[in-house]
Amino acid sequence: ANEVCAWVIHYSTDYVFPGTGEIPWQEADATAPLNVYGETKLAGEKALQEHCAKHLIFRTSWVYAGKGNNFAKTMLRLAKEREELAVINDQFGAPTGAELLADCTAHAIRVALNKPDVAGLYHLVASGTTTWYDYAALVFEEARKAGIPLALNKLNAVPTTAYPTPARRPHNSRLNTEKFQQNFALVLPDWQVGVKRMLNELFTTTAI
After folding, report:
1. How far apart are CA 154 and CA 83, in angstroms?
2. Residues labelled catalytic
3. What are 66-76's pLDDT values in tens digits?
4. Can you spell out the DSSP letters for the chain?
5. Could you write out the DSSP letters of every residue in 49-101?
6. Is pLDDT above 80 for 158?
7. Which of 195, 193, 208 is nearest to 76 (CA)?
8. Reaction catalysed by this chain (predicted)?
């Protein structure tokens, strides 16, 4: 990319951080990946920073898209099959739509082409914070509003330890996006905006 003076866009992750505390992570905060995924993403960031001046690195988290499998579709399927569900309530982040990432990336590229000094590392997620439990609760609320029949009548909040996984998951996936919003003159929407739009499209275009 350097040889042809091209810009490189790289998507990274909140997993580069240890996931501790309750304060949104800033770009300059010390990294300490919890798992191999985070380690490889951090290595990618460093390689790009060292070898390509024209780069935009976007750390994001809790990404979803309307097409393919996602958390909301899984919750809806389970809620149609079961009367009781347990969802993790001690991991915090902002569900961020792939559509939002694409729109913001396109805007950032346009700005960068005219203002190369915006090159660098940014946090890019929707605004606000939620947990997987509250995310699921919103999905079920919107489904009922849309007349989707659910068998579910009890939603339980549980800690991460209730669902052990081979790879450790961060409790705090909050990312501070002030740098991105200031440098690119954008106001990022609340996470509920994108999720509700995705759910509305899901309810009106597919049989759940």
Report:
1. 6
2. 37
3. 988 999 999 99
4. -TTTT--EEEEEEGGGS---SSSPBPTTSPP--SSHHHHHHHHHHHHHHHH-SSEEEEEE-SEE-SSS--HHHHHHHHHHH-SEEEEE-S-EE--EEHHHHHHHHHHHHHHHHH-GGG-EEEE---BS-EEHHHHHHHHHHHHHHTT------EEEEE-GGGS--SS---SB--B--HHHHHHTT--PPBHHHHHHHHHHHHHHHS--
5. HHH-SSEEEEEE-SEE-SSS--HHHHHHHHHHH-SEEEEE-S-EE--EEHHHH
6. yes
7. 208
8. dTDP-beta-L-rhamnose + NADP(+) = dTDP-4-dehydro-beta-L-rhamnose + NADPH + H(+)
CATH code of the domain occupying 8-202 = 3.40.50.720
Q: Tell me, what amino acid is at 7?
A: W
Token pair, residue 39, equals 């380690």
Amino acid at residue number 3? E
Answering whether pTM is above 0.90, one says: yes
Residue 59, strand partner residues = 12, 123
- Of the candidates 182, 172, 164, which has an alpha carbon nearest to the alpha carbon of residue 29? 172
Q: φ and ψ at 18, to 5 degrees? A: -75, -10
- Closest CA relative to residue 122, chosen from 72, 206, 178, 77: 178
Q: Encode pLDDT of 98-117 as tens digits.
A: 999 999 999 999 999 999 99
Report the C-alpha gap between 172 and 126 in whole angstroms: 15
